[in-house]
Specification:
Elements: E1 12-16, H1 25-32, E2 36-41, E3 45-52, E4 55-59, H2 70-76, H3 82-95
Parallel strand pairs: 1-2
Antiparallel strand pairs: 2-3, 3-4
Length: 96
């Protein structure tokens, strides 16, 4: 990449949780210096963690995408197929 700035760390990691337990994922992402980590699981929805002073703090919204409605995104993930998720997203956008 001539002329392109090389990133030293990822800005965002998104982790889909299917099983509980195991590795401390935040410790792994901390070692990689990922600035923002989202975890999603069916029970909890989307959880945002921001790297601050070398440790992660749980946040209500994304620092990278502050206007993104994470609750809506979490609801769309429960739709049975992509078509229904898109219809629900469009309906939501029309009412805003």
């Amino acid at each position: 990449m001539i002329g392109a700035e090389v990133k030293k760390r990822p800005d965002l990691a998104i982790e889909v949780i299917w099983t509980q337990g195991g590795l401390d994922k935040l410790a792994i992402y901390r070692g990689l210096r990922v600035g923002e980590v989202w975890f999603w699981d069916r029970k909890e929805g989307i959880q945002v963690h921001l790297l601050c002073d070398g440790d992660y703090v749980k946040a209500e919204k994304s620092a990278l995408f502050p206007d993104l409605n994470l609750a809506l995104i979490g609801e769309l993930l429960h739709e049975p197929n992509q078509s229904q998720a898109v219809r629900k997203l469009r309906a939501s956008l029309r009412t805003q």
